[in-house]
Every structure is written in structure tokens, then in C-alpha cells.
Design goal:
This protein is mainly alpha-helical. It has one domain: Four Helix Bundle (Hemerythrin (Met), subunit A), CATH 1.20.120.450. The chain is built from six helices and four strands. β3 and β4 form a beta hairpin. α2 runs antiparallel to α5. The protein is globular, with a radius of gyration of 16 Å.
Length: 190
């Protein structure tokens, strides 16, 4: 079976969807998610992800499944395994935590955010679940000490200039989006 023809990594969202996400969806998240609610969404979606993947065997966990594209998901991300999706979530969460730390220290960041730089490689197998579980435990503690008052921002290619609290909101929203992706992957495995 041949590889599906998908848009290249970093191609972004369809134009109209990109406008809706930037002008409506993300502002709604800013209104809805304070620090406490963002952490709660992160924890809830993480637990839901763990409940979906913890009983999977290696072959099912690492098998890419072509899914229908979810709103907010790049086309290049539609043919991932559950393992690849967890890896991607961990990459993005780690990068966003780094950005939050720098912004809270009122330091500007020179490195641009590019979606093509956070795509997964796979290869860790079922150990990815253990790594994800560790990430779930550590992340709330890492953000608990921040005041989220810094005026310094960093540019996200889809959402524009974001303050540290916006990056926390992004972590929660992003993980919940990929929870939906994993639900579709699991359904596609039969």
C-alpha cells in the first residue's frame, strides 16, 4: 500500500480555517481558560489520552492510521500512529514550556516557532506511553510557580504574538486536539 499524498509539514491550515482559528477560536480560549482552567484541561485531556493508549500492544500503538482531518490539524499530520501523536504532543509541550520560562523571565527568544520543526519520528514504541505519563505529572508543577504577568511575547505562526499565559493555553488546547486525533486513530484500528 502506497503512502497517502498529504500536504508537506508546515503547510499550515486552509486559509479560511486559519482566519477562524486565529480570530475566533483562540480569542475564545483566552476568554475561557485562565491558568487554573488551562492546567485542568491539560490534565483531563492527558488522562483521556492515557486511557486510550495504555492497553495497546506495540503493533497497534506504532501503526500509522490515515484519518479525516480535524479542524486545527495540518494535513501532513493525518497519517500518524498513536505513538507519533504522543511524541508530537511532548515536543510541543516541551517547546512551549521553554518559551513560557523565557517569557516569565522577561527574556526575548530568537528562535522562531515553525510547525514543520515539531513533527514526530517515532521509534520509541511503548516506552512513549511512560514518557507521556511522566510529562503529564511534571508539567503542572513546572507552570505552578509562574505569575503569568510578563508583558513579553513570542510569535506563533498561527496565533501571532502570545504572552506566557497564552502559551499555557496553547499547551492545553493542543493536547486536547490531539486527544481527538488519537480517538480517530483508535477507531481506525478497529
Amino acid at each position: 500500500m502506497s503512502e497517502p499524498k498529504l500536504a508537506p509539514p508546515g503547510a499550515g491550515l486552509p486559509a479560511l480555517e486559519a482566519v477562524v482559528v486565529r480570530r475566533l477560536v483562540f480569542p475564545a480560549l483566552q476568554w475561557k481558560l485562565n491558568q487554573e482552567r488551562a492546567v485542568a484541561l491539560f490534565e483531563q485531556s492527558g488522562q483521556a489520552i492515557l486511557s486510550l493508549v495504555e492497553g495497546m500492544d506495540h503493533d497497534r500503538f506504532t501503526k500509522p492510521v490515515l484519518i479525516k482531518r480535524l479542524p486545527g490539524l495540518e494535513d501532513s499530520s493525518r497519517n500518524w500512529s498513536a505513538e507519533m501523536t504522543l511524541e508530537h504532543v511532548q515536543i510541543v509541550t516541551a517547546a512551549a514550556l521553554f518559551i513560557i520560562k523565557k517569557l516569565e523571565a522577561q527574556q526575548e527568544i530568537e528562535l522562531p516557532v515553525r510547525t514543520q520543526d515539531v513533527k514526530p519520528n517515532g521509534g520509541l514504541g511503548l516506552d512513549r506511553i511512560r514518557a507521556f505519563r511522566t510529562n503529564m505529572v511534571e508539567t503542572p508543577g513546572k507552570v505552578a510557580s509562574y505569575e503569568f504577568t510578563s508583558p513579553v511575547t513570542h510569535f506563533h505562526p498561527w496565533f501571532g504574538e502570545l504572552k506566557s499565559l497564552d502559551w499555557l493555553r496553547l499547551i492545553a488546547f493542543h493536547q486536547d486536539l490531539h486527544r481527538k486525533q488519537i480517538e480517530r486513530i483508535v477507531a481506525g484500528l478497529g
